[in-house]
Amino acid sequence: MVDEPEIPRRLKAIRERAHLSVRDMASRVGMSTSGYAHYESPSRFKAQYLPMEMAQKVASVFAGNDDVVAELMELAGQPVREGSDKDEYQSQRQSVPAALVPVYNVEVSAGPGRIVDLEEHVANLAFSPRYLAEMTAARGRDLAAIRVRGDSMEPTLLDDDMVMIDRTKTSLDYDGLFVLRFGEALHCKRVGRGRSRTTVQVISDNRIYPPVEMDRSEIEVVGKVLWYGRKV
Predict the structure, then answer these.
(1) Is 207 within 8 Å of 179 (Cβ atoms)?
(2) How far apart are the C-alpha atoms of 196 and 215, rounded to whole Å?
(3) In this predicted structure, what is the pLDDT of residue 89?
């Protein structure tokens, strides 16, 4: 049994060993700072065990670190023992939820543009929550995976690559790879600084396609490209 005062202390120690602030941890588990801090406060959290849902949220940040996951299961009242409980431990590890990114039957053009008539959620891509948190603070519902068609972004992106976009990142004030909507079609392009504050350079990595200067008002940013996957 875990003594009541130990739960906040040990939860805090787990966080501090990872060099995360309370705000950082709260963001990664999808809670408010004060909501997460409740569980690290000896004066506020007095339950005998850490709720399993909370333990799983924190464990998702440390997916792959068996020792931390085991400690969190212990705080939730499910200690991991040696020998006969190996299968139980594997079950506990599997209970840490994967981060799911929705896949849509949308094809974005690395070329002249593709008009989208239907956006249907057809599947999910599963990521380690820890790996995903290293890329973005966005939640799964704010991410999307779509397919690239065309050759204008070679060699960075090839025809039929899958890209994941963060739909919370819609500012043209930052350079990078973006999915953009202009001319009634979707395009995957690199964005660079324009010659004035009201314009940007829309750039194809394939040098046979020259960059285009466009007014910001002509462009809708769908999201920033964070990741790509490719068949081999």
Answers:
(1) no
(2) 9
(3) 46
Write the DSSP string, 199-223. Answer: EEEEE-SSTTS--EEEEGGG-EEEE
pLDDT of residue 156: 94
In degrees, rounded to 5, the angle at the alpha carbon of residue 203 between the alpha carbons of residues 200 and 206 is 175
Find out whether 62 and 28 touch, Cβ atoms under 8 Å. Answer: no
- Integer Cα distance of 14 and 38 in angstroms: 15
Determine the straight-line distance between the first and last CA of the chain, rounded to whole angstroms.
Answer: 50
| Cα–Cα distance measured from residue 151 to residue 221, given in angstroms and rounded to the nearest whole number | 21
| Residue pLDDT, tens place only, 99-148 | 778 888 888 877 655 545 446 778 888 887 777 877 887 877 788 999 99
With a CB cutoff of 8 Å and minimum separation 6, the contacts of 154 are: 110, 205, 206
DSSP per-residue string spanning 100-124 = EEEEEEEEEESSS-B------EEEE
User: Which stretch of DSSP H or E encloses residue 144?
Assistant: strand 143-149
For tokens 């190996």, the residue is 86
Cβ-count burial 136-163 (b if 16+ within 10 Å, e if not) = bebebeebbbbbbbbbbbbebbeeebbb
pLDDT interval class at 84 (50, 70, 90): very low
Residue written as token pair 């490209």: 225
Residue for token pair 């200067």: 213
Angle at 166 between CA 163 and CA 169, to 5 degrees: 135
